[in-house]
Write a structure and sequence with these properties.
The structure holds two protein chains of two kinds. Chain A is about 65% helix and about 10% strand. By secondary structure, chain A is of the alpha+beta class. In chain A, about 55% of the residues are buried. Chain B is built from five helices and seven strands. The chains are: A alpha+beta, B alpha/beta.
């Protein structure tokens, strides 16, 4: 019964989306307020209906209703409740429902909190959002119905892929989708602005919070995914340049660029047309990611069940949405107003450089992801692109970006003097030089590359704080004046400092992991000890253990340093009978500075076990830094200016006629 | 000039979506037809599991065998590993391994039970290119004459084995010597 209600709710939501997409055309021509209100109500209605459908699907998973194909294929009665719920989005059909749920959530949020937006912009944006909803609801209903029945129903289900049964991964997709579906707001607002033919500072002020929120969630989502890979795949890697990881990373890069260019639009009314283009492209990259994962053009661990019909459908959506938006862009770009000119050395100049670098970085990743497909299309060769490619293309771009990241916030708007700026950055420069020297001395000059990257990281962190200290005029005025300044400094400013410093923390982690991580793989019998980087790992015991839906062999280890016990680590080899699959649960001890990581492997005939032991210095910083970036985003999001929005700028509004 | 610039994004997008559209007809799990029924490309790789030994295309002749391209850094390879071990030990399928672009392949083989008769080290990825490998794991069925008869991309599990490989194997084994 619940399934029928859910199915019906989805169909009804499709009609609401249709109305939401079509009514603005009428509402704006007739200038009829009632029709505008209707668009908002359609957005609410669509959201509520999708919530109902999602709840019905969740109910089917929780109660293990195996008459549903999606449940039978992905769930099992013995699965813990958390994974029954996570199973809702652990498959293609259910994850699409989550996708649309988040899409309509954002639509409803605009309808609910968009009072301070100009009427036409709000209605147009809602219309575009409704059209996106229409496309994806049609996609779900026509190609991937989550409520399809199975007759006869099997006595039990297939279970969820064991490597996905993990708390971190259970919440990874919702965050990821909040991120890249959230970028649909940038798209809708960009298209709405193009329809209007008008973009001004207040437009940027309205769009930025939505983009910022999406960006924060995407950052968390990617971080969770990376941390998951680190501890479940059992060999300590944290990023693989897998096509599907790239699919989430490209919108992140474009979204980061968008955040910064929208800032220029807001403050200086420059880069308008570029920002609109970025708004369209960021969401397009999200759509391309969806296409990649679900069409089967590339194979990957993440790939869902592959069905070319779905690929064709998503490609159709992509062509209609992005193709339409870019055509509109080509028609209207000439009418967009260009802002005040600025000197190359200025805040705008630095932000433009930031945008160029991030776009080139995104293009690099795009090329790396699609190059194998391209080559395949041109000839018969099949090739693959690995980490080596990204090391020589992506990393150098990032180096330049890291250097600029500390300089940019120090620059004045409009025009500045580079020498004067470097003067303001004297302390970060010194700190960075000391870091390079320190690392060189400590490693006896062997890790020159690592030293350089640590120098960069310190430059970035110290540079971020230097910006803050300068703003508070710390040292040049009395302390209580500084404190007063600290109170009046907008939160967005603190957000900047935190996020940039977070990036520096991540760079430290990546550098240390790529340079000084050590590992040892050895056959061990209980009672034996191995040494690595000053630690002794003693294999205490091995025994059987049972989990809720798996059997495990549990190895217990003791880590000693200089004879003192540091930690006890437990690693399990788990066998999931439902899927006949084996997984490894690593034992990790972290003190937030370094990780000790042990994973137990196969036994051999002589009673020994293959044990992998890793020492990962600064590894936690990779994710702590990324979470710090997201925190910076949230702090910035809590800024009053963003919440209240622009004062209704009836007089200041820059009127630009449409063509 | 400005007019032309405005057309750049849509032009690029049309090209990209045309490419994506074409790629839909391209199933990465299918062998490029040119390699099917052709002799395995000539190669000689240093052996990873027998020091001083080697693995060459001549070693593959004489039996119906699997040639499995893998890497220790590839999660899919780890997923299929238990299946391969079972195939090698229970079903006595000869499996030859190619460790692809993987500096730590030898260590991984020491730490895990090996399903392989012999593993060659394709550190440069040269053989991978000759075989048209797009990603790991990828598995080829080689007939008695050393010709490639079937290719599969992605991890092998029991159902993949039953549905895709077992029929090919049965057919090739029944072929006259």
């Amino acid at each position: 019964m619940a399934a029928e209600i859910g199915h019906f709710a989805l169909i009804l939501a499709l009609f609401f989306a249709m109305l939401q997409a079509a009514t603005p055309l009428l509402a704006l021509r007739r200038r009829d307020a009632a029709l505008s209100i209707f668009v908002e109500h359609a957005a609410f209605g669509q959201f509520i209906l999708v919530v109902v459908a999602f709840a019905c699907l969740t109910y089917a998973f929780v109660t293990s209703d195996f008459t549903l194909m999606a449940v039978a294929a992905n769930s099992h009665t013995t699965k813990p409740l958390l994974y029954k719920i996570a199973g809702v989005w652990g498959n293609h059909e259910g994850s699409m429902v989550l996708w649309v749920l988040i899409l309509t959530l954002f639509g409803a949020a605009v309808a609910a909190f968009g009072d301070n937006l100009p009427d036409r912009l709000r209605i147009n944006a809602l219309g575009v959002q409704g059209f996106i909803g229409l496309c994806f609801l049609a996609f779900i209903l026509l190609t991937s119905n989550p409520f399809a029945r199975l007759d006869p129903a099997p006595p039990d289900g297939n279970g969820l892929n064991p490597i996905l049964q993990d708390p971190g991964l259970a919440i990874h997709p919702p965050f990821l989708y909040l991120g890249y579906v959230g970028f649909s707001m940038a798209f809708s607002f960009s298209v709405a602005a193009l329809i209007e033919g008008r973009v001004d500072a207040s437009w940027a002020r309205w769009v930025r919070p939505w983009v910022l929120a999406a960006w924060c969630f995407l950052t968390i989502g990617i971080t969770l995914g990376s941390a998951w890979a680190y501890y479940t795949l059992g060999w300590g890697g944290w990023w693989f340049w897998d096509p599907v990881e790239n699919a989430s990373f490209m919108p992140w890069l474009a979204g980061t660029a968008l955040l910064h260019s929208a800032l220029v639009v807001e403050r200086r009314q420059a880069l308008v047309s570029w920002t609109i283009l970025l708004g369209i492209l960021t969401f397009t990259l999200s759509l391309i990611g969806t296409f990649l994962v679900r069409s089967g053009v590339l194979t990957s661990v993440h790939a869902f069940a592959q069905d070319p019909a779905r690929g064709v459908f998503i490609l159709g959506i992509l062509v209609v949405l992005t193709g339409g938006a870019l055509t509109l862009y080509a028609l209207r770009m000439g009418a967009l107003k260009y802002g005040a000119p600025f000197a190359p050395v200025s805040r705008e100049g630095a932000l433009t450089l930031n945008n160029m670098l991030l776009s080139v970085a995104a293009a690099t990743v795009f090329l790396g992801t699609f190059y194998p497909l391209l080559i395949d299309l041109m000839g018969n060769d099949k090739i693959s692109v690995g980490p080596a490619y990204y090391q020589i293309t992506f990393v150098p771009i990032m180096v330049v970006l890291l250097i600029v990241m500390a300089i940019g916030p120090m620059l004045k708007w409009k025009r500045d003097d580079l020498l004067a700026v470097l003067g303001r950055l004297r302390n970060p420069l010194i700190a960075s030089a000391l870091a390079v020297l320190g690392v060189l001395l400590l490693t006896f000059g062997r890790s020159a590359v690592a030293a350089a990257f640590f120098g960069l990281a310190v430059w970035l962190i110290a540079g971020s704080f230097a910006v803050l200290f300068r703003r508070l005029r710390l040292g040049s005025v009395a302390l209580d004046t500084s404190l007063r300044l600290a109170r009046t400094t907008p939160r967005a400013f603190y957000g900047l400092v935190i996020a940039h410093a977070g990036m520096g923390i991540t760079v430290c982690g990546i550098t240390a992991m790529s340079t000084w991580a050590t590992e040892k793989i050895q056959l061990m019998r209980p009672g034996e000890t191995l040494q690595l980087s000053g630690y002794d790992l003693r294999f205490t015991s091995i025994g059987d253990a049972a989990g809720p839906n798996y059997q495990a062999q549990r190895g217990v280890f003791e880590v000693l340093r200089g004879g003192r016990r540091v930690a006890q680590l437990v690693s399990e080899r788990r066998f999931y009978p439902v899927r006949e699959q084996q997984t490894t649960a690593a034992g990790i001890r972290t003190n937030l500075i370094s990780n000790l990581y042990v994973a137990i492997g196969e036994p051999n005939d002589a009673g020994g076990w293959a044990v992998r032991f890793y020492y990962h210095p600064l590894a936690p910083w990779i994710w702590l830094g990324a979470l710090t970036m997201a925190l910076g985003g949230f702090v910035s999001l809590s800024d009053r200016r963003l919440r209240v929005g622009a004062p209704q700028p009836a007089l200041r509004r820059v009127m630009v006629p449409a063509e | 000039m400005g007019r032309l610039m405005a057309l750049v994004p849509i032009t690029v997008f049309v090209a990209v979506s045309a490419g994506l559209g074409l790629s839909l007809s391209n199933d990465p799990r299918k062998l490029p037809s040119m390699l099917i029924d052709k002799p395995t490309p000539a190669f000689r790789l240093a052996s990873l599991d027998a020091p001083g030994g080697s693995l060459s295309n001549d070693d593959l002749k004489g039996t119906v065998a699997l040639l499995n391209v893998f890497a220790s850094w590839c999660p899919g390879c780890r997923m299929e590993h238990p299946t391969l071990v079972a195939l090698a030990h229970k079903s006595q399928i000869p499996i030859y391994g190619v460790s692809w672009k993987d500096p730590s392949g030898a260590r991984w083989l020491q730490a895990n039970p090996s399903p392989y008769v012999r593993v060659g080290d394709d550190a440069s990825g040269r053989l991978g290119i000759d075989l048209g490998v797009t990603g790991v794991p990828e598995t080829f069925v080689i007939d008695r004459g050393g010709r490639i008869r079937y290719r599969y991309e992605g991890p092998i599990n029991d159902s993949v084995w039953q549905e895709r490989f077992a029929p090919v194997f049965a057919e090739l084994r029944s072929e006259p010597q």
